[in-house]
Amino acid sequence: MHDNVRHALERDGWTVTHDPLRLSVRRRKLYVDLGAERLLAAEKGRRKIAVEIKTFVGPSDVKDLEDAVGQFVRYEHALRREEPDGALYLAVPESAWRLIFADSLGEILIDDDVLRVVTFDPVKEEIIRWIR
Q1: Which of 51, 52, 62, 67 is the most exposed place for a label (fewest CB within 10 A)?
Q2: Cβ atoms within 10 A of the Cβ of 67, count?
Q3: What is the set of domains in the chain, with CATH numbers?
């Protein structure tokens, strides 16, 4: 799925700048799947994002969600220290969005601004939606 997301981001106008994006928290190293940026002509600047990819194919979607949220929180706080203007997104296949995030358990995380999610079609290698 890694390459599918990378291609989808590039097709959506992003330049992948890091694969993976390395973050440091003191002596600990963290590796977010992708770092990307996009030129924003109207703002005359660049928007930077980091993207962690999750497929949610384990035996328990609740356990997969718990693991993804824990990793997202760790990465987001580390990213704030190194790239304060950057934003972290959790990339999930559209099928996982419908199964997990359109459900009440996932909706809580979106509604309470715990996660930012980008969904993608792994076959077409296209971004479907950005959820902030």
Answers
A1: 62
A2: 14
A3: 2-131 (3.40.1350.10)
